[in-house]
Amino acid sequence: GGEAPAERAGEGNSDYLPCIVSDAGGFDDKSFNQLSYEGLKEAADEIGTKPKPVESNSENDYAANLESLVGQGCDTIVTVGFALSAATIESAKANPETEYVLIDDAADADFDGKTDAENIKPILYDTAQAAFLAGYVAADYTKTGVVGTYGGQPFPTVTIFMDGFKQGVEYYAKTKKKDVKVVGYEGGEKGSFTGEFVANEKATNTARQIIDQNADVIMPVGGPIYQGALTAIDDSGKDVALIGVDADFYETDPKTQDVVLTSVLKNMKTSTNDVIIAASEGDFDATPYVGTLENDGVGLAPFHNFESKVSETLPDEIEEVTAGIKDGSIKVNSYLAK
Amino acid sequence: MSEKGPENEPAETTKVTDDDVVEDPQDSAADTDRVAEASRWHVALREITTGNALVAVLSVFLAMFFGSLMILFTDADVRYGMSYFFARPSDTFIYAWEAISGAYVSLWRGAVFNDLGSTFHQQIKPITETLKFAAPLTLAGLGIGLTFRAGLFNIGGRGQMLLGGAAAAFVAVKLDLPMIVHLPLAILVGALVAALWGGIAGLLKALTGAHEVIVTIMLNYVGYYLVFYALTRKSLLQAPNSGNPKSSPMPESAILPDLLGPKFNLHAGFLLAVLATFLVWWILNRSALGYRFRAVGENPAAAKAAGINVGLAYFSAFLISGALVGLAGVNQVLGSVTDGATSGLDAGIGFDAITVALLGRSRPFGILAAGILFGAFKSGGFFMQASESIPVDIVLVIQSLIVLFLAAPPLVKAIFRLPSKEA
Amino acid sequence: MRLALRDITKRFGSLVANDHISLTVEPGEIHCLLGENGAGKSTLMNVLYGLYQADEGEILIDDEPQRFKGPGDAMAAGIGMVHQHFMLIPVFTVAENVMLGHEATGFAGKLDLDAARKQVREISERFGFHVDPDALVEDLPVGVQQRVEIIKALSRDAEVLVFDEPTAVLTPQETDELMAIMRQLKESGTGIVFITHKLREVREVADRITVIRRGTVVGEASPEASNAELAALMVGRPVELKVQKSPAEPGERALVVSDLTVADEDGQVHVDDISFHIDAGEILAVAGVQGNGQTELTEAMVGLAPHVEGSIKLDGREIVGRSVRKALEAGIGFIPEDRQIEGLVGNFTIAENLMLNRSYDKPFVTGGSLNLKKLDTFAKEKLAEYDVRAPGVSTLAGQLSGGNQQKVVVARELSRDLRLLVASQPTRGVDVGSIEFIHKQIVAARDAGVPVLVVSSELDEISALADRIMVLYRGRVVGIVPADTSRDTLGLMMAGETPEGSQA
Amino acid sequence: MSAVATTVKPEGVAERVPGLWKTPSVLGVFTVLVALLVLISPRSGDSTFRWSRQGDWFSIPDVSLPANAVVWAAVLVCLLCTAYAAWNAYAGRKSPLLLVAVFAVVAVAGFLAWAVAGKTLPVVGLLAGSLALAVPLVFGALGGVLGERAGVVNIAIDGQLLFGAFGAAIAASLTGSPWAGLVAAMVAGMLVALLLGLFAITYWVEQVIVGVVLNVLVIGFTSFMFSQVLSENAAALNNPPHFPRWEIPLLSGIPVVGPIFFRQTVLVYLMYVAVFLIAWALYRSKWGLRVRAVGEHPKAADTVGINVIATRYRTVLLAGAIAGIGGATYTLVSVPSFGREMTGGAGYIALAAVIFGKWDPIKATLAALLFGFASNVESVLSVIGSPVPSQFMLMLPYVVTIFAVAGLVGHSRAPAADGKPYRKS
Ligand SMILES: Nc1ncnc2c1ncn2[C@@H]1O[C@H](COP(=O)(O)OP(=O)(O)OP(=O)(O)O)[C@@H](O)[C@H]1O
Ligand SMILES: Nc1ncnc2c1ncn2[C@@H]1O[C@H](COP(=O)(O)OP(=O)(O)OP(=O)(O)O)[C@@H](O)[C@H]1O
Ligand SMILES: [Mg+2]
Ligand SMILES: [Mg+2]
Fold first, then answer.
1. Each residue of D97-145: pLDDT tens digit?
2. How many structural domains comprise chain B?
3. Judgement on whether residues B108 and B206 belong to the same structural domain of the protein
4. What is the CA radius of gyration of chain D?
5. Torsions phi, psi for C161 (to 5 deg)
6. By alpha-carbon position, which residue is closest to atom 13 of ligand 2?
7. Residues B88 and B149 both lie in one domain
């Protein structure tokens, strides 16, 4: 409406239209949907435009949502999650004028090692590298010699965290000759999964069982399920530390500040922001992006309140390990590692 | 909704009489005698105002009204307008009007006809999308409605869809056959596996008396994890080269063909749904099997005493129901989302279909009509969300209110002060 | 207390069930209401009891107009009712049923069951009932259930008692006992309204008789009037009270039952090692107090009973162990004891109900598909032939009156080629006009050479139909006696006593 | 005339009743299954069962036993139970429930010993977690039992749980008090119940329709509000404080029992009270007698002056409030915020518990606990590492329920007027 007062929310002056489609988790998933959306919003504010977000409730919705957005005249469409891969490829092929950004998947349905449409920019994160560091930290921090992790569902984007974490712990145990055990994950799909990416009693209870195994560091991987761990930690009356994933929990969720040891960062907010700003200026670049420690696409958050609680040498050791991973002298296996 | 479907709703007439009634609210229920002696015009008026058609229209209207309230109270502009309501109330009303009309206009544009489209095909595409979404809802709704008629509750739509879809996907990706064999085989196997899965509930009910509501609910979860398991095994369903729980895309030879060419997404699944509607109508109303289903559903003791094998009826009703619901899963995998089966292929349709069956009063053509209505809401919802940023969840609210109001004509009549038939 | 109904009118939609009915009940009087099915008797009583609100007219107690908003008000005013369909909760005990609605309670609403037990025992003693306050009602025979209903009413100090068809389900002895109780109540000053279809009972106890037809009072009759006069007044035409029937001409030995034992799911034995036979063209009537194995016997005949031992041979072929369908295909017609539960599908049309036992094969099913034309023609024929009062063949069976529902069942069962007819309580709750008709049909079947097994708790019906009578007691055969055995002898046998000269 | 005993029970007839063989058959199947575990995949090492927790008065030492031996011992006991059940069936007797219970405990113990070979199973954690997982199910099932006892089928339990969770989250966030959240949850549950009553009791709409549709309505409404209102003001509206754990002095120190039952939140204690109060009131009080009367035979209740409609409304509202408490556990105990569709269909599981528990408050509670136990076995084993793929472990509670319903319960009798609207003319 043109006759609305100027203060009316979200009205801008750019006619560049960025859009985003969530996967079935929705934009409140405290995970990749939310972070990508926040990155997009920030970029939109900076550009001076109002983005169009649409949520999907099931896989039925992906193609239809993409089609509606194309109909709305979006310039760039961010699609979040491997589940949207096929729908994104199809939509991209049908609408070569529109730019697509696909988070967490290579958009390579024919497995030829190349993106299937030229107007899709795949964004991936080798979070195993950062989770490796977190595993190292956890192994150093633990007093009981037991650390734990659990996930929402055994998707590669979830298990990559758990896998890296486990390797980090094992690396520490081997180099430091200290007996540290990981509970909740055995590799592959074998491990502890709540079955859903929902904060519920099941999430809480799984965390409880991990704490019951004497774990004093715990890393939940799967959007809001960490909230269950918060309750479980609180209830246990023990000193149990939490490791966040995706974003720095210390900042995104103040309730975690007393317990969060560190977080495994997957910088989706920044990447989305960067891509959108570039696209709004006509610099859309479709080359795939893989976030690593090297390019700061993934990383480890500061210790915040735990700075005084971790061993003094730990920050330096982390530096060293980071360097090792960067130069390849320390190998971190994951489905993304070459 | 009546057996004959919605085409006999006299939309024009209802409007006129609707006004009449509003002007003359005194013409109320208690006055039986007067009506009995009244003129033919009065009789006709009474027929219409007490008839189902008007109630249907008013139910939709009421549901939309409540939906509007939700939109109003959560719309940022309206709330902004209210913040200075006493300074300039007109703004609030303008914003309110914009919010509501925007929502419903976009719903219409997404479901039926998009006047903003630049080409004819873009303009009429929404209605084809509606039919595309209607297909699985109708198929699953038919299955669930059929069990309702046999006095059974099939809450297991999710599991049956998953198993049916997964089985069809298995046949589709593991075999390499010419289309003429491949597609029918995949459809058939999908329906068959789902039928057997549904049959478990019928069999347990017939043999041990286990309550089918419990069994079907539990089978939903069991089916989900089974399919999930299959999707994580390369030997079963998982695509080679990928770690994701998803199958390879369906090969061309096993994909339901497009009905209106590649510009539209409408595929032969809708044809399947229409055929199934006729088939179920025939089963229920013209076949001996369906007669027995209904007899067992209405009065199992009398059916048993008359020589009908009640357990067998339960079992076969669940078999057929499972097959129909399974076809909805097949429709998803081989028609609507052909890039690979996942554990989310049911897309909530198994549950939505319960509502569809209820709205269609378990009558096949009623279910088809209800399926199309829900398909329209679904298709329109995407458009509404994209253009107005209103979450599609509102569609759930409107749909469920429609079903509730339709089921309680006296309430609707009371709200609009219409005379009721059984005065 | 003197009760008066004045100009009561009650409508159901366009149907006027009671049309300006007036009626008085004096203290210490038994006032009989007579009328065919659907005449409006129950409706009138439901109005009196506050279950329905009258559209017009008023209820007066001792000349005071009353407003009953519900049965609670009626009970408070001293009106009690023993309903046609018992208003007892089967899974409650007797004491719980009696106390329901006026419970004595202790701390925090705790039920005082002892008080209720005491009350049950007191009233039982007063009238010589033997009722265990802690027995579950569903385990009690109907006769005792009815006593519970009476105790219920008396526990609330009812001064006017309404009995709606209380004898439909009783044995002769039980009926006699009920009459005695009614007289006893009458002595103590209670006013009684008594509804029944059995004219013998009316003449036995009535002080006054009011006849209702189609919702209006058609007159008062004197208790001295003959059965035929009463029947004619009720139905509006002369009625044959006893069906004309020639002596049986028994043919071959069609049905041979030997060593039959029937148990239920819990292993309880209901039919205990019985043997009998029926010849072609003969009616064997089974007499007995309800609940002595009759239901299970008839169910076993058609394969409905789950656990059967022994043998039932029809025309030399074994029935035991076969499915219901096979039994019916062997030529058995089955009129179940409760038409609402086992006889009809209420939400099916009359036509659909008429093919209920023939949904597998010709004539109504060809190649798995229904032959609706044939069914329609057939149904129209039967509607006319059996004089079913209904708007048409697509009327829902559930909307018919009891008598007409029964006619639909009888029409269905008799319209096949039968080798055996099993009829359980074929005229329960049916008015004299319809009884006459149904009896004629059963006798016609016999005359056509069909062996017939009739189960009835109605001695009038037994003696009207039987060629021979078999009496069951506790699942065993007390004796098989000729049709002309006296009522008294039969009554004794139904109580388990084996009289002289009967073959067991 | 005396009350004629119409049925007699002579000796030696009942052995023909095949229903009796169901129990031994099911026990046999499970015995074979347990035996197959060790036969197909024998385990090495000891299984350790841990019984103690911090804060116990004294600690029971861990029990370590060789896994294979334990399983074989379990198989043996199971065989004996099965044989005894079969003998009972042969003799025409029903097997005592105790036998089934013993069998179940032994079979489960055998399975656990097999699964945790070489590892330690925290028994107390397993059982305490089972209880915690069952809490919303128990409240939901109690609500379901009450409603159906009054003759109103309540498929809307899920909606009541979800709306309860929603209401609790908002009210507790706004006031900062979980108690306010609890009250709001009850009110929210009652609101859904009111709709159920309006349509089912007043307007005679098929109760299954109303229930299913109300669930969809609540999902739609809460999801809509969640995205439009809650997530934008999460700090103010979706940040509820949670109920702390209350250790009951003395009792909580009893080994095994204390940590399971008496180191819980107030909602669990409320659950104990609710279960026993409802069980007592339903069978022993005037209120309960009337509720059951209305559910069994409303017309009979009407004829003795009980207001059927009002009784049904009151009961359904109470049931809604109770289910609402169950909903509160999601946002006031389990996790500190409301999430879209966060009940995950728990209401349907509660409904299954109602039927499985034969419409009895205690049995329905036990059914819900069984479900909680099966879920938690999955959780615990997946954490300590189990030899079974996770999807099959996740299936476990549902498969167990199907077996239990088909094998042990069979026909169950609902209140006679359950689901039937009461119409007076
Ligand atoms: N609730 C009702 N709604 C509509 N019609 C009814 C209702 N109850 C009774 N009727 C009709 O009212 C008429 C009178 O019925 P009523 O039950 O009073 O008959 P009755 O004299 O008691 O018959 P019977 O001898 O069979 O018991 C019948 O035509 C019946 O169909
Ligand atoms: N709400 C109703 N609408 C239409 N018809 C009804 C309704 N209620 C009862 N009837 C009809 O009224 C008849 C009379 O009802 P009632 O319960 O008094 O049985 P009845 O006529 O006494 O039959 P019976 O002699 O078998 O007991 C029933 O057979 C039924 O068909
Ligand atoms: Mg490629
Ligand atoms: Mg009557």
1. 888 889 989 999 999 999 888 888 989 989 999 999 999 999 999 999 9
2. 2
3. no
4. 24
5. -115, 135
6. C401
7. no
